[in-house]
Each structure stands twice: as structure tokens, then as C-alpha cells.
Amino acid sequence: MPDFANEANWLSIYDQVSVAQGVAGSPLVYVPIAPITLPNSLDYAYLRVAANYQDAKARWRLGAWIEFYVDEPNPAVEVARILAPVNKAAIIPKPVFLTTYKVRAVIPYYFQEISLQIDGYIAN
User: Cβ–Cβ contacts within 10 Å for residue 55, how many?
Assistant: First the structure.
């Protein structure tokens, strides 16, 4: 049985803050945050994803779409897309038919900043 509460069972894969770029001369216009693609192939059975945005409204649910791709360079074949909630950690199992995979996080266009943390479950 997995022990998700034990921090020793998690390895940090990605932990960064991304900020949307403003358009010169207009404080309310900005270029959305580009999708974040993790550069390495992964094989973790579970991912823990925390997509935090301090200015999120209470009614917002979406923090990021976590997309799983077949671990091949070309073409990029998406096999699953899972919602990660905003300002909460979510444990996401990898699709059972994949042994290794690539991950991309797609941030909602209306986020001006996001603190994204992705951890891999390393216990057996």
C-alpha cells in the first residue's frame, strides 16, 4: 500500500515559479504562461502536483492540465490529460499502459503567475 503521507517517499522533479510577460504600455495585457514541458523521461507510478496561484478566485478549480505523452521524440502522442486543482496538491497515477512517459503542464491563460511543484513517488 503506498504511503503518500511520508515525505521521504517523494522526489522533487520540478519546482519553479513562472510569470506571464506583460505587454509594454498596458498593465492589464500580458502574454500567457507557456506550457511547461519537463525535459526528462519519467517512470514514477505516481506524481504529486501542486499548482499554486495566490490571486486565484474562490470559484476557480483548475490549476493546470497535466498531460502525459508517449516517451518518443516525434511525433508527440498525448495519451492522457488530467486536471490538477489550484492551490491544492493532487496525486496523479501514471496511465497503466505506459512504462516511461513525458509530462507537460498547461497553465490556464488567465493566470499571471504560478508556482508549480511536481514530485515523483519513489517508494515501491
Answer: 9
